[in-house]
Amino acid sequence: MASRRRPPFDPKSAFKHAQKQDDRSGTGVPETILKQGRKSGQLNLSGRSLTEVPQSVWKINIDVPKESSNISLGTTDERWWEQVDLSKLILASNALTSLSEDIAQLPALTVLDVHDNQLNSLPEALCQLENLQKLNLSHNSLKALPESICQLPRLQFLYIQNNQLEALPEDIGRLALLEELDASHNKLPTLPTSIKFLERVMKFNMSNNNLNVIVHEISGMQGLRTLDATHNQLHTLPDDLGHLNKLEQLYLRHNRLTHLPSLQHCTALKELHLGNNAIQGLSEEQLREMHSVSVLDLRDNRLTKVPSEIVLLQMLERLDLTNNNISALPYELGTLPNLKSIVLDGNPLKSIRRDIIMRGTNELKKYLRSRMAESAPTAPQSAVQSSKGTSGIVGGASSGVDPHLVSSSKALDYSEKKVTAIPDELWAVAQSGGVTIVNFSKNQLTQYPKQIESLKDSLCELNLSFNKLTTIDASIGCLSRLVMLDLGGNQLLSLPAELSNASSLRELVISFNRFTSIPSVVYSLPCLEIILAGSNQIAEIDAQGLKSLAQLATLDLQNNDIRQVPPELGLVTQLRSLQLEGNAIRQPRPAILSKGTLAILEYLRGRIPT
């Protein structure tokens, strides 16, 4: 008797059969997924082409399978008394046009993510989710938000970007615990006055809207650290903006501003982005208010000169003056101690030869200082000394250090001494003074000073730039409070893995060294916001590593050996400033690079294979 031939295995039909067997509820959501949701309290239904949410989801903790409710079945892997209330529901990337009022049957929800759908309305029952902490409604078709959304007492994160909103709810100020609000890429003409009650919001993004004015009530948002109002139609800014004393980053690019805003009390401001406006000049008063700024972006404006009072910005590190009408630079610009990058492309500079500008920032600063010495201007130089004196940093050109000043300023400056080792007596002074800032730059140190470990409980900023260091000791890992580390201008090839313990580090400078790649330890620093790695020998960009740095805003890779920019770098959307000039890059073309960071990232994303 001939044996029967078995039909060939068809994986598609086998998958469909298994799915059919598994989907006992007939809703399109397999019972095994619902079972896992009851067990973990989390349900992920993203990317399933759902046009509506199945009832089995809303009733996940109500409709329990019979076998799970049978107390006599000790062998079942799901028992009703062991189930967990659903706390996290992800419905992203589907085809939903609305949500059911049945959402009220999930009162334990803390996270609801419905981004990337086609929602045009929201249920009033949303207000019954009293435990909701994070709500993501971005990338939908919402034209309005219901007032009931303002009745979510525990909401901390609200993402409503990329919709068609023409107004925010008038009572949005009732969201007293809100910490992050993203309302970018909508059609908002104004903001409700109740935002003054959002005192805990630290990050507010209102970019890419139709705003022509910012209400003065914004001064009530005293917790703001990052404010983004790029791509609007702002002509002026309220003076009340200057009362945001915790503000660290202010983005106002692509508006219609003709002058700088008043920032009188913004003492924590570190980054000010004013590119693509119509600003015509800077005054001494405005510059005096920005004494803490380290990044100043004034590209694509109408500036005709840079005032000598720029010397007041003693903390300035990056200055972008691209595409203005500047014909000369003040010699005082060369005295700024922390300035590492000056971008001057697109200006009709006449007093400085092009080859000097092309040599880089350090050579340009050196040239400006030499011209200042030749003309011997006394007033600006006294301004420099006065500014240094008011900063509380002591030492400078003198040979000694005043312990009283070190103690009062919490800063130890022992730079430009041409020493090969730090005197032992300084460590006792620094430790007793509880210094938070140490500056040993422009010396001849060949070894990392291990005595820095004695300052581990207080040190926040460490400057070892322009020495002769070839290695950094592993003991640097004990500096857990470190916020800024400047190692530029040395002979470094690598960084120790122990640096990962400096988990608070926000700014890292490794420019003018011998790195062939960004050290892998850098990608383990979760708070890192600024990486300055220009003028090295870096050949490749690790896009995946950079993407892991969720706070990264500034990346400087100028003057390296980079030949290819990976398209995946376009996915590092948190970047606000990307510098790639001075590399042998064929793509993106110079025309793309000149358009700025957003254009570069958009171009790279367009080249990612589908």
Automatic annotation (TrEMBL):
Task: Please give the GO cellular component terms listed in this UniProt entry.
Answer: cytoplasm
* This protein's UniProt keywords: Leucine-rich repeat, Repeat
Q: Which InterPro entries match?
A: Leu-rich_rpt (IPR001611), Leu-rich_rpt_typical-subtyp (IPR003591), LRR_dom_sf (IPR032675), LRR_domain-containing (IPR050216), LRR_R13L4/SHOC2-like (IPR055414)
Stored SUPFAM superfamilies = L domain-like (SSF52058)
Tell me the superkingdom of the source: Eukaryota
Signal sequence span is: none
**Region entry Disordered, spans:** 1-30
- Domain Disease resistance R13L4/SHOC-2-like LRR positions: 101-183
Cite the PANTHER family for this sequence. Answer: PTHR48051, RAS SUPPRESSOR PROTEIN 1
What protein name applies here?
Answer: Leucine-rich repeat-containing protein 40
